[in-house]
Design a protein that fits this description.
By secondary structure, the protein is mainly beta. The chain has a single domain (4-202), classed as Fumarylacetoacetase-like, C-terminal domain (Fumarylacetoacetate hydrolase, domain 2, Alpha-Beta Complex), CATH 3.90.850. The protein is 13% helix and 40% strand. The strands form four sheets. Strands 3, 4, 5, 7, 8, 9, 10 and 13 form an eight-stranded mixed beta sheet that branches. 33% of the residues are buried.
Length: 204
């Protein structure tokens, strides 16, 4: 089972819970409709990685930077910078046929995380940034989320639940795109505009 690092302690999440279409600008850039209810999908434990690999046997893959939360007792225990890797063309084909997205979203190493840090402050002051090869690609703050973390947790509990140590990926803002091997990613999480966490990934 894959693990994440939380304040120097290894934790084994049973799953990654992802919320889709949670930023208006990202919905627009992909020409999607605004959902009437929350869009959930899960990534398996085998998707979890602390390194950034380009998917095997693929020519193209999209990055999606996200604020990520480790959940305990239905509350935020820790936060990290996360990357939801997506095989966009495959996802589009599956969606057109009304088929599940797992092949495009839950492949090996498709959920990439920095180390998590304990967090017990007001989520409203969080923001994050993604740089690729020193160019700013994505930037957003918590206020731009359509559905906030407490609302997402409450809604998930209407049909499933978080095991302690599970991860919530809270959606991506505009600016998603492709990447290649050798690219250098730098993810930052900020609180009141001050960096509290940053992690560099080189694509392998």
């Amino acid at each position: 089972m894959n693990k994440v690092l939380v304040n120097e302690q290894l934790i084994t999440p049973s799953k990654v819970v992802c919320i889709g279409r949670n930023y208006y600008d990202h919905i627009k850039e992909l020409n999607n409709e605004i959902p009437e209810e929350m869009v959930f999908f899960f990534k398996s434990n085998s998707s979890i990685s602390n390194e950034l690999f380009f998917p095997k046997n693929q020519n193209k893959c999209h990055y999606e930077a996200e604020l990520s939360f480790l959940i305990k007792d239905n509350k935020v225990e820790a936060i990290a910078f996360g990357l939801d890797l997506t095989l966009r063309e495959l996802q589009s084909k599956l969606k057109e046929k009304g088929l599940p997205w797992e092949r495009a979203k839950s492949f090996n190493n498709a959920a990439v995380f920095s180390p998590f840090i304990k967090f017990d402050k007001n989520l409203e002051f969080l923001s994050f940034e993604l740089y690729i090869n020193n160019d700013l690609k994505q930037k957003a703050d918590y206020s731009l989320m359509i559905n906030k973390v407490d609302e997402i947790i409450k809604e998930l509990n209407t049909f499933s639940y978080f095991e302690d140590g599970d991860i919530l990926m809270s959606g991506t803002p505009k600016g998603v795109g492709t990447f290649i091997k050798g690219d250098v990613f730098l993810g930052k999480v900020l609180y009141k505009n001050e960096i509290i966490l940053e992690k560099e990934f080189e694509v392998k």
